[in-house]
Amino acid sequence: MGSGSSPCASCKLLRRRCAKDCIFAPYFPSDDPHKFAIVHKVFGASNVSKMLQELPIHQRGDAVSSLVYEANARMRDPVYGCVGAISFLQNQVSELQMQLAVAQAETLCFQMQQDPVALPTQIDQHQHHHQHQDHDQKSLLLSNSDFNSIPHQYFSSFASPSNVIQDPLKRESLWT
Amino acid sequence: MISNNPTRCAACRFLRRRCPQDCVLAPYFPSSNPERFACVHKIFGAGNITKMLEQLPVHLREAAADSMFYEASLRVEDPVYGCVRIISQLQHHILEAQSEILKTNGQIASYIAQQQLQQQQQNVVDGASYQQDMQISEYLGVGSDVQTLANDSYFHP
């Protein structure tokens, strides 16, 4: 918290007095100056302040965490930032979807071999099973258009970022 | 004299300033799409955008501007998590898919093991049946000797 004796990382960097109600103080402690420095570099202190002010207090912690994550991504990859990671992960998901489809086809083959007489029933059950779980399958297989590709209206000309970003974010899990 | 763009780009129009011929932002924020700049400016700020683009070689600036616009749009839609929500969901889906693949591969392994067991059992039954046939043949005095004798008699009438 802001106090006269120990300014938060933000106020230290901005060289100003850290007020008691400093909006940054709870999220940018003085022992981690790099955290604010990177957010300030990418988004700017005034933008971050405005963004936090527009949020209820209980959501500000998560907002700061996500901004730090984005800022780090942008520093590591100045061209694509987080978008590079999204593209990389989308490719991974597509590959896994294919692997899963192949594996599921194999199990179906085995089931048919074991019980060919009941084949029509099995197929009906299989279809029913899939229809019943349609929503789950969709979320698992990501037929949701949000994930299949980055929407084109955002890009005038977009080279594949997965060629650029190899490692930075693929192994990071959030909030750990 | 600094020559200006005849039509100010969206950035310079938004910022109410002259748009020079060499405006860094003009190629990526055309006047035909003012919302694009407004969105990026709201999240990153014009100064930061300019700095970030200036630090990049020209051939990469368009991709950078596009990715910033994408991130900014998602942040405007979701002020708490922005595009990080999508990353989190993708990571979650990857874990789910990996788990599902492991489970399915386990089922396949189980089917293969079942098949092998059935095959082995069949081999045992076939082997027992063959031995039984052989015993009967020996009892009856017929068997492989018959074929040999037949061959002999054929070649040695």
Automatic annotation (TrEMBL), chain A:
Q: What's the superkingdom here?
A: Eukaryota
- Pfam families from the UniProt entry: LOB
Q: Which InterPro entries match?
A: LOB
Chain segments annotated as coiled-coil in the UniProt record: none
Outline the extent of the LOB domain. Answer: 6-107
Q: Which PANTHER family match?
A: LOB DOMAIN-CONTAINING PROTEIN 12 (PTHR31301:SF15), LOB DOMAIN-CONTAINING PROTEIN 4-RELATED (PTHR31301)
Similarity comment: Belongs to the LOB domain-containing protein family.
* Protein's name in the database: LOB domain-containing protein 12
Which organism does this sequence originate in? Pyrus ussuriensis x Pyrus communis
TrEMBL record, chain B:
Record domain LOB: where: 7-108
User: What's one Pfam family the UniProt record gives for this protein?
Assistant: LOB
Q: Which PROSITE patterns match?
A: LOB
Q: Which family does it belong to?
A: Belongs to the LOB domain-containing protein family.
PANTHER family in the cross-refs: LOB DOMAIN-CONTAINING PROTEIN 26 (PTHR31301:SF153), LOB DOMAIN-CONTAINING PROTEIN 4-RELATED (PTHR31301)
Q: What's the name of the protein?
A: LOB domain-containing protein 24-like
Organism from which the protein derives: Pyrus ussuriensis x Pyrus communis
State the organism's lineage.
Answer: Eukaryota, Viridiplantae, Streptophyta, Embryophyta, Tracheophyta
